[in-house]
Protein: C2H2-type domain-containing protein
Organism: viral metagenome
Amino acid sequence: MSTKSTENEKKGVEIIECKLCNYLTSKKYNYDRHCLTPKHLKKSIINDKSTKINENSSNNELLKFECVYCKNVYKERTGLWRHKKKCLTKKNVDISTEKITQNFQETPQKYEELMMNLLTQNMELQKQVIELCKDKSMTINNTTNNNNQKFNMNFFLNEQCKGALDMMDFINSLKVNLTDLENTGKVGYVKGISDIFLRGLRELDVYKRPIHCSDLKREVMYVKDNDVWEKDEDKKKVKKIIQNIAHKNFKQINEWVEVNPDSKDIQTKKHDQYMKILIKCSGGTDFAEDDVFYNKIISTVAKEVHIDK
């Protein structure tokens, strides 16, 4: 942490700067909150490793030891060690973790409500189309390849796959363990969640799967929800499955900490592993990055559930 001299000093306002993230604020409270964001924690881990390398580069250089949580600098390692024991920013990490978990738990509920509204609207639209066809005695005879493919797709889904699991039943049946949590911290959000998703699909017979892909190039997905097969426009249903799997995996974090009590000690390797798990399992740093992650996972899943016509 550093302060900048600006015109605001004339007004008695002190500017606090995080040089690591190029972040400025006039309030210590905002700065402390910034220090707990995934963006700052990621950069802090990298900066901390760089600091350790620089410490050993030359015995003649003046050594500086910096706290990775509040950025205070000490001339001696013992000074930093004593500081870390009572660092207020460090003590707030567990509180921040709890808040992240609470926010993560709220997300699937909001998406579920949105999807239910969309499903209801879609069902009403289907009823209107059926009534219109009856009133006008419409007879459609189309023998093009596209319609033949559509007819075959309908037969495959509604007849051969009529016993398939609903998407929510599939999510509830998925078994996750602490190995999945550690794997996500190691290989990242996209690979970690993809591994869980694919494992669940491969445990099912093809006709029992709740999701199929009819066009791999365009990633046209069909999902069974509320006992109805539907084309997944904009891939919203598949993204909902991904979010629920990620949520299920992330909920294991407290159990992992209990099994690995050393993770609470910031001077241990287990603590470094804990921070990686926390950051990687949380997904992207914003909605845009989340969407990029979802699309990468969908591409992987599409290859697994593509229908061999």
Summary: The longest helix spans residues 88-135. The chain has two domains: 2-62, 90-139+162-305. DSSP finds twelve helices and eight strands in the chain. Residues 90-139+162-305 form one domain.
